Amino acid sequence: MKYDEIKEQRMEELKKRQLEEERQEETEAKIALITRSLLSDEARNRLNNVKIVNQQLYLKTVQSILYLQNAGQLQGKIEEQELKMLLEKLRNKKEIKITRK
């Protein structure tokens, strides 16, 4: 009886994992579709490079682009220079200054 319970539990865990993976794939597909329509090819390539290096910055950038689009502040596609400026604004650079006395 314990074997059956363990088997059921593992099957449920597998189903949950599969559902999570499917949701993740759907989300990524939606983001890809949105970026394809709102970004130039160069900007989209840059954003994909950011995704590889810094997932959090990538997500912040996509959220900001969606916000700008929903607010009606986008005029056409975002070019690479505009994306660079947006990335620079979203990146939290903390400079450490050392002063010696």
Strand tally is 0
Gyration radius from CA atoms, angstroms: 21 Å
Summing up helix and strand content along with how strands pair, one would put the structural category as: mainly alpha
Determine the mean pLDDT.
Answer: 88
Judging by the overall fold, what is the CATH architecture? Orthogonal Bundle
Q: Major sheet, described briefly?
A: none
CATH class: Mainly Alpha
Task: List segments where confidence is low: pLDDT < 50 over at least 5 consecutive residues.
Answer: none
Describe the structure.
Helix content is 76%, strand content 0%. The chain is mainly alpha-helical. The protein has one domain: Helicase, Ruva Protein, domain 3 (Orthogonal Bundle), CATH 1.10.8.140. α2 runs parallel beside α4. The radius of gyration is 21 Å and the shape is flat.
Short description:
The protein has a single domain, classed as Helicase, Ruva Protein, domain 3. It has 101 residues and is mostly helical.
Task: Describe the secondary structure blueprint for this structure.
Blueprint: H1 2-38, H2 41-53, H3 55-70, H4 80-90
Jot down its keywords.
101 residues; mainly alpha; Helicase, Ruva Protein, domain 3; 4 helices; 76% helix; flat
